Amino acid sequence: MISIKKLRRSFGPIIAVDGVSFDVEKGQVLGFLGPNGAGKSTVMRMLACFLRPDSGTATVCGYDILKNPADVRRSIGYLAENVPAYSEMTVGSLLNFVCDVRQIAGKDRKRALDRIVPMCAIESVYHQTIETLSKGYRRRVGLAQALIHDPDVLILDEPTDGLDPNQKHEVRTLIGKMAKDKCIVVSTHVLEEVEAVCSRTIIIARGKILVDSTPEALREKYKCSLDEVFRKITKSKVA
Fold first, then answer.
1. Strands across the sheet with 153-157, in order?
2. 202 forms bridges with which residues in the sheet?
3. How many domains does the chain divide into?
4. Residue 123, burial from CB neighbour count under 10 angstroms (0-12, 13-18, 19+)
5. Strand duo 200-205 + 29-33: pairing
6. What CATH number does the domain containing 167 carry?
7. Which candidate among 139, 206, 226, 236 keeps its CA 20 to 30 Å from the CA of 107?
8. Cα–Cα distance between 163 and 120 in angstroms, integer?
9. How confident is the model at residue 190 (pLDDT cuts 50, 70, 90)?
10. Average pLDDT of the chain to the nearest whole number
């Protein structure tokens, strides 16, 4: 459902993404890992058509990010690292605004809201303004807007950032439930999250892919925890 071919993006003299290629299929949850500045968010922003690559391309559900960006955006749910939101809006107003943008109306809108509000556990703050919410609740609202149109592909940048342990468990459980029917890319610094929900792991540093494997295979190969694997790979291959 996602196919990335030699994506490259630079910011002035800094090469953020350097010829990255990989595919992700339906039913896979890919843990996209790397140290700060590795290029993870840049790849995800290009996939979501927020950034244009310098070269290379990608397809999402068969749609090219350069030729068919509107179709790509319709096919994905994107949770950015810092979710933009209108602070003066209530949660309900924001989600209805997203429905307007997504052209979800009438009974379809009611069904979408009835599904997503309890799914993301935001009933208690539905009538509050965004500016009054805790970081955890803002993250839940961000997840709700990404899921409201029931997309086939999910791109989630730090989905549990700011959540307490119980909320993290709930989000990981939700990702697990959705996994068989969707193609999901999760970028995170929380290695236990990768072990909990991901069926595959890509480690990137300095814009290049260092490893494409599974959490289990990496632990078996290096005979240590995923945290230690991550440190060994990123330090030894980037030094």
1. 76-79, 153-157, 183-187, 29-33, 200-205, 208-213
2. 32, 212
3. 1
4. exposed
5. parallel
6. 3.40.50.300
7. 139
8. 12
9. confident
10. 92
Residue 60 lies in a domain: yes
Q: At what angle do helices 106-119 and 91-101 cross, to 10 degrees?
A: 130
Q: Is residue 14 part of a domain?
A: yes
Give Cα 35 distance to the centre of its chain: 16
Minimum mean pLDDT among 54-58, 77-81, 198-202: which range? 77-81
Question: Which conformational region is residue 225 in: left (phi greater than 0), alpha (psi within -120 to 50 degrees), or beta?
Answer: beta
Longest dimension (CA), the chain: 56
Residue 221 structural domain:
2-84+153-238
* Position 148, amino acid: I
**Joined tokens for residue 87:** 């602070």
What percent of the chain clears pLDDT 70, i.e. is strictly above it? 98
